[in-house]
Prior knowledge:
The chain has helices spanning 29-41, 102-108, and strands at residues 8-16, 26-28, 44-57, 60-71, 77-89, 92-99. By secondary structure, it is α+β, with helices and mostly antiparallel strands. It has a single domain, classed as Nuclear Transport Factor 2, Chain: A. Strands 2-1-6-5-4-3 form a 6-stranded mixed sheet, sandwiched between helices. The longest helix is centred in the first third of the chain and has 13 residues, at 29-41. The radius of gyration is 14 Å and the shape is globular. It starts with 7 loop residues before the first strand and ends in a 5-residue tail after the last helix. The mean pLDDT is 87.
Amino acid sequence: MPFTGDLFTPDAVYxxxxxxxxxxxxxxxxxxxxxAARSWLEPxxxxxxxxxxxxxxxxxxxxxxxxxxxxxxxxxxxxxPLAYLFTFQDGKVIHQRAFVDHAEALKAVGLEE
Length: 113
């Protein structure tokens, strides 16, 4: 997950509604984003996230993905939808939220019921 001063505000917040142990937790700033990424990648031997579509929704952007992964200890391989909702202010991301369901991400910006 790239994180640069050019794209994110220093106090940007990341929320993950994908992994059960992350739900309800917020990560703040660069250190928080990096901690979330390390924790998110920990159980996988490998993870491939393929971008399928980017949708403009006023001051937000929704990115729809397909994630394929192999679990480190069980060697189980599977795939899952994945979506991110980015909220912008003054051209920079102030909030990012991950969803396991494309429809939930679209609903969060009023594009699907």
